[in-house]
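Re-run requested by the PI after the first attempt was lost when the workstation crashed. Everything re-entered from the original request form. Ligand of interest: adenosine-5'-diphosphate.
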Amino acid sequence: MKQELRKTGLSRRNQMSEVEVRNLSAKIIEEIKKQLPIDKYDVLGFYMPLGNEVDLRPLMAELIAKGKTIVIPKVLDKNTMEFYPLQDMDDYYIGKFNVREPKSNKKMPKTKIDIIFVPGIYFSADKYRLGFGAGYYDRYLKDYPNLKVGICYGFQYIPEFPSDIHDVPMDLIITENPSHPYHDGD
Ligand code: ADP
Ligand code: MG
């Protein structure tokens, strides 16, 4: 079931044009700025887009220029991923799964990352995530104490899909579709 859904979602996303990716990504960045107090965070977890994933690089560059610490994931082994600082937008090499990974070896402690933007193939109304199927984010986020924000295009935000006991839900999902500012309940 999850596997079928991954195929559907990826093939739909692979059909997007470059212009569509760019325009929707720009709208999603606008929504992030509207829905979150982005200047409040000091250490922010992002990702380098793979294929047609939502491209948040313009926002990452802007935050680096403002002196914020941007961290992105690096796969260490079959089970483990950790976040490392990206000094500038070219400070990467091509790692596992063809993903661009940071050159730095100074691992950022999990508790110091204020917010993590998480890419996905689908997100559900109850904020579960469907990823590529390796479980890296589930393992990393299970004891991550701060804000987890799922990032996807509107067509990837769907009512429901089956989740497993190990799946870690997000606190918030942001797409290009306008929504209210996020309040964490306190
Ligand atoms: P994705 O989250 O990428 O869509 P899945 O949720 O299907 O992928 O997880 C893939 C695999 O990762 C699972 O089959 C499971 O074996 C493993 N996994 C996920 N979270 C954990 C965890 N907390 N501990 C051990 N294994 C896990
Ligand atoms: Mg999962």
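Saved to the shared folder this time. Helices lie at 2-14, 18-35, 57-65, 136-141.
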